[in-house]
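User: I've been trying to design a sequence by hand for this structure and keep getting stuck. Would you show me what you'd pick, starting by listing the structure so we're on the same page?

Assistant: Good idea, let's start from the same input. This is the structure you sent:
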């Protein structure tokens, strides 16, 4: 199957800038897995918005801006999870965060999200703790984030 011109452009930029973008994201995020997620999401955006990328006077600048936007999304998610914990603690009804948000994601998945986003644990650490593969852990986190976002993001 022949790649499109857009696919070749994104692939070339990936080969040229991936490591430097990952380094940049790693400086701004304390978790290397979240840094990798930010860079991967930026390249997904680059592929989806290839015409905008192609028209940019600085494709590298476009990619750095995309990574910066993804980092903002990650930080908002971290703040949301921290706020959930605080809201649960502030409730005078004796409910914990797992009880308050039951039905959105399982208790186990909420604990997994909290450990990654609030406590800075890596995907590999969580996979090892759960006795599952790294890929299975990543997929579980992705699905939990999606379910959570569907309910709590505007």
């Amino acid at each position: 199957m022949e790649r499109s011109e857009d696919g070749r452009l994104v692939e070339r930029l990936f080969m040229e800038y991936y490591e430097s973008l990952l380094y940049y994201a790693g400086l701004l995020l304390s978790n290397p897995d979240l840094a990798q997620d930010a860079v991967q999401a930026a390249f997904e955006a680059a592929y989806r918005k290839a015409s905008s990328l192609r028209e940019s006077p600085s494709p590298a600048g476009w990619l750095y801006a995309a990574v910066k936007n993804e980092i903002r999304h990650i930080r908002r998610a971290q703040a949301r999870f921290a706020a959930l914990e605080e809201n649960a603690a502030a409730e005078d009804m004796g409910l914990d965060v797992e009880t308050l948000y039951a039905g959105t994601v399982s208790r186990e998945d909420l604990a997994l999200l909290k450990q990654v986003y609030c406590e800075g644990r890596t995907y590999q650490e969580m996979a090892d703790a759960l006795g599952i593969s790294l890929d299975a852990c990543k997929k579980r986190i992705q699905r939990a984030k999606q379910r959570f976002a569907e309910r709590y993001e505007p």
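That's my pick for every position. To get oriented when you compare it with your attempt: The chain has a mean pLDDT of 84. Residues 59-90 form the longest helix (32 residues).
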